[in-house]
Write a structure and sequence with these properties.
heterodimer; A: alpha+beta; Ubiquitin-like (UB roll); five-stranded mixed beta sheet; 2 helices; B: alpha+beta; Aldehyde Oxidoreductase, domain 3; six-stranded antiparallel beta sheet; 4 helices; 35% helix; 40% strand; elongated
Chain lengths: 79, 151
Amino acid sequence: MRVRLRFFAALREQMGPSGERTVRPGTTVEALWRSLVAERPELAAVPVRFAVNEAYVEASQPLAEGDEVAVFPPVSGGV
Amino acid sequence: MFRITRSPILLARLVRAVGDPAAGAVVTFLGTTRNENAGRRVVRLEYEAFTRMAEREMRALAAEAKRRWPLRKVAMAHRIGLVPVGQASVGIAVSAGHRAEAFAACHWLIDRLKEIVPIWKREHFRGGKVWIGAQQGGPRPRRAARRAARR
């Protein structure tokens, strides 16, 4: 199944703003991220949080067809 | 009013948005861009947001603040894009029947906003620029700085 990816800030500069990925049904957010890290080992050091369909989720969240997975480096609102 | 905007933050608009005849206090906060960080001379800051989610998270924070304190209204705005030194990047206004809860809620809201609202800050300083993660208390120095320097 297909899921969409979005990246922000420093991650956006490394990965581009968005992407798509084919994963097996039941794949978790964490497994998806591990597969990205496997291709780009430099990502392993980046502390990230995840949102699916614009809501924060735990890494153990299973993905569904068409989900939009946003990968955030640490947020930094304000001053 | 919960807004991510490319325009300057207007305090008067935030104050108007929380106007309420039952309020005895309006507390406001403006976060402004400082000219130095970690010993570096900052020339401007740049903000990026996941806009729809950021506005939704701000609304959720306001709802939580209203559960914690007896508030009247909350308004929050955060600027994105380039923000020159001295200008506001974030503004919050809280109205309440009495000042104690308005102060407490405003303080809590800016702290939580920085923790969870998906907004990122890039510091432009003399000689480079670097993405900053606020939770780490400062820039994530070496890797990001080197990457920025290569650009």
